Fold this protein.
Amino acid sequence: MLETADWSEQDLAEFSRCVRAELGIKMPASKSLMLQSRILRRLRQLNIESLDEYRERLFHSAYSEEERTHFLDIVTTNHTSFFREPQHLEHLKRQARQARGVVTVWSAGCSSGEEPYTIAMVLAEMDVEFVVLATDVSTAMVKQAAEGIYEQDRVLSVPPELRKKYFLRSKDARQTLVRVVPELRERVRFHHLNFMDDDYGVADRMDVIFFRNVMIYFDKPTQERVVNRLCRHLKPKGLLFTGHSESLAGLAVPLDMTAPAVYRRTE
Ligand SMILES: C[S@@+](CC[C@H](N)C(=O)[O-])C[C@H]1O[C@@H](n2cnc3c(N)ncnc32)[C@H](O)[C@@H]1O
């Protein structure tokens, strides 16, 4: 069976280039081992013994399209949690109170759904009309998010009264899973979307865009391009949130920082 030591510099460079071209995600040398071990896991799943055979499947075979989807799933990092960075939720509430009509919010890079369902719970508690759009490039994540099924310990960060109201326990007492109630799931629209695409095909203009812990993986020109595209879908004076370890400093984008990791559209 193939081991990480069997990879040549060229092998690594080729797959790193592919990740960057498809997703915009940088693959520095420090990430090589992670990339190799994820690809090797996929090879084991497929019972494939060599990188050449995998290359054939990924780039040239009748399965290319399908394998590309798997490849994007395995190389993305999907760490997330419910009620992550809670100060953003206070800004969300303030913005929702001031919004006219239906409040529109986009969880851009939604991973397994914890972020959009957090947004939906917060807005449902405010008794406003709202729609949450949730998108990710990983097909597996979008599917999992739409199902809204989680291990019980993942929902421990949800305040207990909201946990009781918005999650159903399995009828089977041995099961440790909970599911988001249908009334909340219905209010979140899940779609596949790659930020590298020129046109995001999003019709709505958003009051708030959560773009958190995604662009950390992009280089500066890619960050600038993607944030400008997202801004096309943000209302004037709308808010864009980034992760706390991310910054828009030095990017030519129509946004002003109003608080740490909180940006307002200027025009
Ligand atoms: C670390 S998770 C962040 C999840 C959530 N926003 C949060 O802060 O908890 C990053 C997500 O961005 C997605 N992503 C990475 N590159 C992307 C791209 N080019 N287009 C769309 N989504 C992308 C990944 O699939 C992953 O689910």
User: Anything to note?
Assistant: The domain at 4-75 is CATH 1.10.155.10 (Chemotaxis Receptor Methyltransferase Cher; domain 1). DSSP finds ten helices and ten strands in the chain. Strands lie at 103-108, 130-136, 149-151, 167-169, 177-180, 188-192, 206-210, 234-241, 255-259, 262-265. Residues 23-25, 76-80, 84, 109, 111, 115, 136-138, 141, 193-196, 212-214, 243 surround S-adenosylmethionine (CB under 6 Å).
